[in-house]
Amino acid sequence: MNRIPCSSEFPAYEVIASIPLCSCWTGNLSAFCKHQAVVQKAFGGPFPNNAVLRLEDCLSLGEMAAGDQCPSLQYFMPMSQQEPIPLPAPQGPVHPDEVEMEDG
After folding, report:
1. What is the pLDDT of residues 28-61, one digit of tens each?
2. What is the 3-state secondary structure (H, E, C) of the chain?
3. Residue 12 and residue 70: Cα distance in Å, rounded?
């Protein structure tokens, strides 16, 4: 289990990668949430409830969202993962400021 500090009334959200579950409202409903994204970015590997998208899927979604303003296929390469990578065991609290998230 990982604890993600937050700025709301709760001191931290708890993320359990193996189930997958987060104590936030969204993650409690088994949806992929931003707290799970922080843990995924910090420790690698996809969460079971995070869809693994092919490059073509990313491009199609981008074209639906942005139309002619959609970036090229190369833009989506870091967001695509062709084969799942096992998630390592949790290693204690993770603070969102310690994880470098890419803009965009």
Report:
1. 887 888 888 888 878 876 677 777 777 888 788 8
2. CEEEECCCCCCEEEEECCCCEECCHHHHCCCCCHHHHHHHHHHCCCCCCCCCCCHHHHHHHHHHHHHHHCCCHHHHHHHCCCCCCCCCCCCCCCCHHHCCCCCC
3. 36
Quote the Cα angle for 10-14-16, to 5°: 165
Q: What are the boundaries of each domain within the chain?
A: 2-98
Burial class (CB in 10 A: 0-12, 13-18, 19+), 75: middle
Which pTM was predicted?
0.50
**Distance separating alpha carbons of residues 33 and 37, to the nearest angstrom:** 6
